[in-house]
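User:
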Amino acid sequence: MSFLQIIILLFSWLLLLPLLCLRAGAKEIPMRDFFRNPEKAVFAISPDGAYVSFLAPYKDRLNIFVQKRGSAEAVRVSSETERPITGGYFWKGSGRLVYLKDFKGDENFHVVLAGLDGGAPRDLTPFPGVRAELVDRLPDNDREILVGLNKRRKDVFDVFRLDVVTGELRQAAENPGNITGWFTDHDGKLRAALAVDGSSTTLLYRDDEAAAFRPVLTTSFRESFKPALFTFDNKRLYGLSNIGRDKTAAVEFDPVLKRETALIYEHPEVDVAWLEFSRKGKKLLGARYATWKAFTEFLDPEYGRMVKELERRLPGYAVEVQDSDKAEEAYIVRVYSDRSLGAYYLYEAPAKKLTKLAEIYPWLDANELAEMKPVSYRSRDGLLIHGYLTVPKGAAGARLPLVVNPHGGPWVRDTWGFNPEAQFLASRGYAVLQVNYRGSTGYGRKFWEASFKQWGKKMQDDISDGVAYAVAQGTANPERVAIYGGSYGGYAALAGAAFTPDLYACAVDYVGVSNLLTFMNNVPPYWLPIMDQVREMIGNPETEKAALEAVSPALHAEKIKAPLLVAQGAMDPRVKKSESDQIVENLRRRGVAVEYLVKDNEGHGFRNVENRFEFYEAMEKFLAKHLKPSSK
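Assistant: Predicted structure:
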């Protein structure tokens, strides 16, 4: 796993499922309709193009179903009843599927095999307390995948070739103790890796699997080249680089010459996020980036024409090509907008035939939902901050109760699209402000570095200044402002209540950090190789104890006067339950009202539908009590 992937996982939370917004005056939709599981979602197509798979509810848990292409009859091939399948799944050959599952949210994922023959799924990595990470699906190999396992050492992952038919594991590479990412060529050979040494990262490379890895590029983690894929002759690397530039660009890198040899694409305002490519055609297709919404710079004219044709036939939606068969003739296409989770289609390219597979939430009417509008403002130190404002459908938009909803991460970003929490809150009469505060990714290296050691400080100022912006625009009533967030957003909610106590009428913390000292000393073992870099970004508990104490809300509970709702998963491996316990105990000791919801079968965010129901019902009542929206 690369450093960027680990950082994205640092506070990323995948709990968000669709919510709905009501037009003012319309009949209120029952809360559970906002949080029901999707009817069908996450479609994929088998390599031979004969089958289509998807996730759908079975006993209130998302499981894998398969149907013959062109048939309406689907067969369930997994039987998870404790937790939904949220770790991802994929085809292995055309007769088997592989998915990842964890237990009660502990994120120690296991690799599970499901077949089309109706047999029981089989756990292929049945090792207690061991986490499996996918290194390479090996799409050209019908039996094997490459997985990383921290079985030998909890802090690092060795790579194994796993035969999904026999269950045989053969070690492909032993981690010397500092490798955080492994990369394969188009033949499925381990040819590159990223190694961490303190705050430096080194790109390792070898000519073949019989050779030893050799260092070819060492940088500070602030500058990096992150491999995306090998060139199609397996001699060079395509990747994302911010070396010598502020905005990350897509480049070609030669490991023999040890330097960048071609610029593929760069955007003047934002980072390039990833590259799309054709395995069959052996060519790059597009470079993805996001300004106010996601866009593609097409690198292949034929692919560009296909996507633009789909956009013409599916107007009003963003269009994403998400999967294809091996022949690259049948494609899974997803469409969405800011007011719709959208639908999945099957596109048969030779005949240009487009067939709708399913609406994700067919019971929702996009016309009843609120628009998500991009906004921007200057923070108090002059930094340009981008975000999104969602105002209730049909509302006048003046002096509304406001919920500020900072994203988790913190090193990710909000972007345009169907945002479930914004739509839910808007449906209940609140304006919703999402802030891409400093450190949010996609805006370049300087913007990211501006967040270093600024938890509770300038990062929090960016959020507070967003409130001031909404008030100055006449959108928000300054007497009726709440802050709600999950993960880092939960920390921001607590920090807002503690360090700007007069700004917020109430706060909701969902699996958020409350004490930076205890958080930094209780990370999962597989974060340890990158902790020097994390300390540079957040702070060092050993040498900067006072600075971290100063921005830890749990240690300043006496400043909090606003009512608080806290939700926590007992099995959370990233933000331990003790983080929520601390803030709750410190406040209750002082007599401050705190509602505390703990779920023993959840981790970093609630996945089970009944737990989502309970949390959002509690949040709806809490906000209605303390913000008194005009619709109430």
